[in-house]
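Escalated from tier 1: cobalt (II) ion holo job.
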Amino acid sequence: MSHGKNIIYYKTDYEIGLMKQAAVMVSKTLTEVAKILKPGITTLDIDKLCNTFIRDNKGIPSFYKYRGYPHNICASVNDVVVHGFPNNAPLQSGDIVSIDIGIILNGWHGDHAYSFVIGETTPEIIKLVNITKESLYKGIEKAIVNNRIGDIAFAIQEHTEFKNKYGVVRELVGHGLGKSLHEDPQMPNFGKRGSGTKLKENLVLAIEPMINLGTKNVFTDKDGWTVRTDDGKPSVHFEHDVCVKRNKALILSDYSIIEAAEQANPNLTPSIVIPF
Ligand code: MF3
Ligand code: CO
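Tier 2 regenerated the structure:
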């Protein structure tokens, strides 16, 4: 998506604290999702649960009506890369479902995503999920002062495309995050080391690798939103809200609570936990 006028908003430490609260509310919502996922549940059920949880906690689901988006969350199953509409189809064992949630809390945005595997799946899919998650952390490791956007982008692309022959989506990118859902700079998952905007302290980025088992090529459905792989093969999406710091990035979102719920749910195949 485009973000307008190339203004980068660096946050104060106080604002980073507020953004952390928004990000953690997204993580808590994803944790509620992780608790109830099982074969037979629909993504519309999940949308409803998220909307209730977010509003009960005084947040606003930010995707609803964003550029006309008609639901509260994105739920992208299998060959759907991102921006899938919640629907009435029961999830089945073997499905990969990426749940992407945005929340405005006290005027600040949290926005992240987690891919879950329902029931049992193949080693090929488990590897795709784990490598995608790992690539997100390889990117985050580069989110430090004086590095550049291209250093993060390259780290993600190297791990997924160059080392594991997966398809890195070109049409969609991560983004700055703050008072708006999409701020500058754009955060692609492919690129050259040493290129792009130089990172300064307290830039907040939504880093979100969208990685395909097969071709990198995607298309958008007639609904104008749903992005699918050209070859119908599955795609995985993980997203973290990350604050650039001097020596080590600060991850504002909290996967640990999602992962604990995922591991406790016998209806899911959990992905690897990456220490950071
Ligand atoms: N995480 C996605 C993004 O940052 C979700 C946006 S969905 C939309 O682009 F409905 F808000 F567009
Ligand atoms: Co995002």
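Residues 13-269 form a domain with the Creatine Amidinohydrolase fold (CATH 3.90.230.10).
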